[in-house]
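Our collaborator T.R. sent over the components below with a one-line note: 'Predict the complex.' Nothing else. No constraints on interfaces, no templates requested, no preferences about which chain binds where. So this is a plain run: every listed entity goes in together, and whatever single assembly comes back becomes the starting point for the next discussion.
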Amino acid sequence: MAKKDQQKPGWKSIPEGGLIIEPGNADDYKTGGWRTYRPMIDQEICINCHICWIYCPDSSIISKDEEIKGYDYDHCKGCGICANECPVDAITMLEEGNLSEK
Amino acid sequence: MSKVDLKEIAKQEEELTGGHRLCSGCGASIIVRQVMRATEDPVVVGIATGCLEVSTTIYPYTAWKGSFIHNAFENVAATISGAESAFRSLKRQGKLEGDTKFLAIGGDGGTYDIGFQSLSGALERGHDMVYLCYDNGAYMNTGIQRSSATPRNASTSTSPDGEVIPGKQQFKKELTDIVAAHNIPYVAQASPHNFRDLIKKARKAFEVEGPAFLNVLAQCPRGWRHPEGEGLDILRAATDTCFWPLFEVENGEWKLNYIPREKAPITDWLKPQGRFKHLFKDKNKYLIDEIQEHVDQRWETLLHRTGEK
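Returned assembly:
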């Protein structure tokens, strides 16, 4: 799934002490495949209160210029905390299986 | 202390990326994301063995944008106090500039139990660091074994509910009180559902000179056995039932940060969690009364200690 797993560096190319020298490279690892339910946000109802953003365990809600711009579906695990906490019910959880059929 | 403006703090850079392998709906990463927003200085992070440590740094990946130091179960407070001392020395020698914060993180296993002596030592020596404990009430990482933070009568894999014994036999250890007894500048107990409270507390913790300690309740969908999306509702119930009071101790002064208008019955906290399911059988009903009595006593003690009563 992830690029790095396929490359499998040899012992000579691993940094001394097994250090990871690229900060935040877990970004390359996609956990979106874990998801059973996909959160969908209705931008017309959304009031940009950022409640979903502060509660997201996977840093997967995109905030830009004080607005919620949607989801990072590569990393969202579909826990549904955002949909549960949204004060205006702008977020619905849809089953992934049904979505891919369409 | 300025207000917590979500739109404002959303402009800060994300310190914990997605792609970590914590379970869906985990409370630990919510806490980390909130706490890391409390400072703009670079933070050196060390984590004791636990869910958060193993899941955010699976080789060759790291979810951390800043410096991160691996630790064994028992020594995160020692590691971070060493890093802090080295930083102070280098700064004195003129080899380093600027401000850096030091944050040690442990789960309840790495804080209440195994890491306790290194924590106590670091607090006594007075290092300028913050210790953050995310308390999900068992060794969730290795398969839900009981710890001294597990609440009474919770069913875990080493204190299972059975014919003879209804889950864990002992009450939870009051670690926040024990840490407060070290007379350090700042100690607080918080919960991520009340993010304003938690971020304000984290700001204070980073700002004070000397050690600060935050004890934060974290939901665990696997260990607590509840639907992933409902974790924060359960944390809300924990504060409304006074099972997990939100308070702080600033230079020896105790202060309650949240007093529910009407104290909810403890069943509000027990009922949504599968680990307490057996308590609702007829033969175990008396246990709920015992837990309620314990929570009431603790709440009364806190009210007196904080001068609310």
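Summary for T.R.: The beta strands of chain B are 43-47, 68-70, 101-107, 130-135, 186-190, 212-217, 247-250, 253-256.
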